[in-house]
Each structure stands twice: as structure tokens, then as C-alpha cells.
TrEMBL record:
One of its GO terms (biological process) is protein transport. The chain crosses the membrane at residues 17-35. It comes from Candidatus Methylopumilus turicensis. It is a single-pass membrane protein. GO terms for cellular component: plasma membrane. Belongs to the YajC family. This is Sec translocon accessory complex subunit YajC. It is found in: Cell membrane.
Amino acid sequence: MFISSAYAATSTAPSDWTSFVPMIVIFVLFYFMLVRPQMKQAKEQRAMIEALKVGDEVATSSGILGKVTKVGDNVVSLEIAPSIIINVQKSAVQALLDKGTIKAL
């Protein structure tokens, strides 16, 4: 009598790999929704920084707008006002502006 009730109480356990499927799906979605776009944006930012040349108008991460006067290995010189030149790290350059943007302001 006890043996038959013990067999009736057991249920089939799901296989080990099926319990990981939702977690794998979440990781794949996380990669395609967050990681991959961030890597693409970082790649575009590096390409923009490497393509900087004298005369480009840029905005820095601190909000300073200026015209590139000199490009070094790690430093860019920006003219932020007539005869006022500052040096910033290339990594601080956030965006390349259209020509004439600074004069329009």
C-alpha cells in the first residue's frame, strides 16, 4: 500500500537544459538590445575622433564649442574665441558640428 502511493506521488522533473532556455533568451536579448548598439556607437565615436582635422567645428563632452586648430596624438587644440585656444583630450570630443554652427550662435 505504501509503495503504490509513493509511486503515485512522484512526478516527472523537467530536463536540466530546458530550465536554462529562458535565461539564455534573456542574455541574447540583452546582447542585441544593449551591448551591440553600445559597441556600434563606440566604434562610430572612435572613427569620428580619428577623422578630426584642422578647421572642424566640434563640441566637447563638457559643452565647449570650438574650432580645431591643431590635432595631436592624444590632444586637440580648440579655438573657443578669437585668440583663445585650449587643449582637450581627443576622447573629450563628443560631436562634430556642421560648418558655421559656431558663428550662427
